[in-house]
Amino acid sequence: MADERETYKQLDARSLRGLAHPLRVRILGLLRTEGPATSARLAKRLTEDSGNISWHLRRLANTGFITEETDFGTRRERWWRAVHDHTRFDIDDVLDGDPRSGTHPGARGHRARLPAGDHLLGTGLAA
Asked: What residues contact 61, with CB distance under 8 A and at least 6 apart?
């Protein structure tokens, strides 16, 4: 398949739940940096159970971070690839502004860019 990856994924509250588990962040980072892989290959690389990896892959697919790579594998072997090179979000898109949500007025309008790799969520906010 020709590389159809988009440049970035704009996070909203729903898609943010797709990254709510640290293992999903690691899986997404590997797919972005190392390319398409099966759950078995990812499980070996991450020293995790293949069934657990498969479950997390489906969660990432349901929230639009990854997609099945149809040009690889067989009926028994599903390959997955990242849809985007990196992730970014606007604070206003992921927080509802309710004082109880922890939204700080000073954070309004700031944007963060989350690059590929295991440090996916380790970046700070950038104006």
From this structure: 67, 68, 80
Which among 9, 2, 46, 44 has a CA at the least distance from the CA of 24? 46
Q: Average pLDDT of each block of 10 consecutive residues along the chain (127 residues)?
A: 61 78 93 94 96 96 91 82 82 56 47 47 35
CA distance 25 to 96: 23
CB count within 10 Å of CB 58 equals: 14
DSSP state of 74: -
> What CATH code is carried by the domain that includes residue 81?
1.10.10.10
Contact 24, 18 (CB under 8 A): yes
CA 33, 34, 40, 43 dihedral sign is negative
The count of residues in the chain is 127
A 10 A CB-CB count for 14 gives 11
> For residue 97, what pLDDT is reported?
52
> Does 94 reside within a domain?
no
